[in-house]
């Protein structure tokens, strides 16, 4: 692996996704003897909040992306932490609206990116393919969340009932 290996990462706009991406970038820098450059595309305020967590700032850079306003999100919304959970689909719409900025940012990066990690931006593989970059879907999810979802699906429970009570876990699910 030469000096020109460059990874771009664009995680879902939630700190529970962004921080694992940053940890991965730091680990790749350490494990590669600092030969892998990584650029994380993040909302502007997140860049200032997490800059100190880039343990290798010369090769792990946090690049600001503007998250456009989408009604009914409050002005200035950049991450899921800024909103109640029921507004997350609107944040996903805002993320989709960053497509052109993300593509132009990727085109301007040096060295040219080799690999693109994405989470929920379903349109990134298309951009990566068009630019001759390989893409990787990386979804940092807690194993307990997956186990709970599988257990609920196996029990046949379809989710929240009309009375807004959370689904009951099947008896075989460990507590």
From TrEMBL:
EC top class, as a word: transferase
Coiled coil regions in record: none
This protein's record includes keyword Coiled coil: no
Extent of Basic and acidic residues compositional bias: 156-165
Gene Ontology MF, one: UDP-glucosyltransferase activity
Keywords: Glycosyltransferase, Transferase
Positions of region (Disordered): 156-175
EC number(s) recorded for this UniProt protein: 2.4.2.51
Family from the record: Belongs to the UDP-glycosyltransferase family.
PANTHER family: GLYCOSYLTRANSFERASE, UDP-GLYCOSYLTRANSFERASE 79B7-RELATED
Protein name: Anthocyanidin 3-O-glucoside 2'''-O-xylosyltransferase
Organism per entry: Opuntia streptacantha (Prickly pear cactus)
